[in-house]
Amino acid sequence: MSKPPLDRHALGRRLSKLANASTADLVQLQRLEPCANPARRIGLTGPPGAGKSTLAGHLALHRGRDRRLGVLAVDPSSPKSGGAILGDRIRMDELAGSSEIYIRSIGSRSASDGLSDNLPEMLDVMDEFGFDEVLLETVGVGQAEYAARAQVDTLALVLLPESGDVVQAMKAGIMEMADIFVVNKSDLPAAQKMATDIQRISALSRRPEDAWRPPVLLVSSMKPETVSALSAAIDRHQAWLAESDRRAALLQARARYRLRRLIERRAADAVASLDAKTLEAPLEQQLEQALQEIRRLSTTH
Ligand SMILES: Nc1nc2c(ncn2[C@@H]2O[C@H](COP(=O)(O)OP(=O)(O)OP(=O)(O)O)[C@@H](O)[C@H]2O)c(=O)[nH]1
Ligand SMILES: [Mg+2]
């Protein structure tokens, strides 16, 4: 079944509208029918400068040959959207003719977890526009990874050799979260040692018999064969997910995350609107007022 051509302008408009939507708008904009063919979602996450955007570009060229592929980069430093930052990393002539690749960076706005507030809804829009696959780039060690985990099917943690990234990642408790470990810029020294360290740490965690065992890959954007190997590992993980009903648990976690974020944002709005007098009242009364305000916000919007 062939798809209608990708309408980049319409997609851009929808994403911009969502990027600026309030919680009240969101509920209005919410699609009621789940998408029959949702895009595969692949996350690239890791500390600043690990080479995620460069890698996303190479992966997009590799995987986007015969698919409609979107790249969304959540960029904490970019309040504006438009894809310039990520777009710069890919030579435009390389993309010429690939009318099915769409790239956009989105500001992280107010979200405390480093993701854009309305990212779940933006990802839904990618489904609606017939994308086969979406690569999601998020920056950070810690909060952003937890948040990204819920949004994607396959999460690759991108780390730099000789950076102390592994120690940071362990401290932040995100080693268990990755489906694939990427020791990136493996053209640099000490990459192999880092890969061995990760293997050792990863082998320590107890997993059920049939659990996914995250591979550790040495990748360099300068070596196309390493990007192919990463792409193949992504396919293997996707196939493993599809094998039984593993995706159901992921989808549940995703729905929970979205609802929690919505409630958190409403709660923040409600607390911000309480007046000085209420804030001097006993805590129980403050709580009562705040809950009433949440309810009021939910019914009036
Ligand atoms: N040596 C080497 N350098 C690389 C490689 N991949 C990317 N770089 C360089 O690393 C720098 C950072 O790359 P980015 O792709 O912007 O990294 P990022 O993780 O997206 O950075 P943020 O989004 O700012 O967190 C750039 O100067 C790249 O040219 C690689 O495989 N090897
Ligand atoms: Mg980047």
Explained architecture:
By secondary structure, the protein is an alpha/beta fold. It folds into 2 domains: 8-243, P-loop containing nucleotide triphosphate hydrolases (Rossmann fold), CATH 3.40.50.300; 257-300, no CATH class. The chain is built from 13 helices and 7 strands. The chain has a 7-stranded parallel β-sheet, sandwiched between helices. Helix 1 (8-19) packs antiparallel against helix 6. The longest helix is centred in the last third of the chain and has 28 residues, at 246-273. The two termini are 40 Å apart. Residues 78-89 have low confidence and may be disordered. Residues 52-53, 73, 137 line the site of magnesium ion. It comes from Ramlibacter henchirensis. This is Methylmalonyl Co-A mutase-associated GTPase MeaB. Pfam families: MeaB. InterPro entries: AAA+_ATPase, GTPase/Isobutyryl-CoA_mutase, P-loop_NTPase. Keywords: Chaperone, GTP-binding, Hydrolase, Nucleotide-binding.
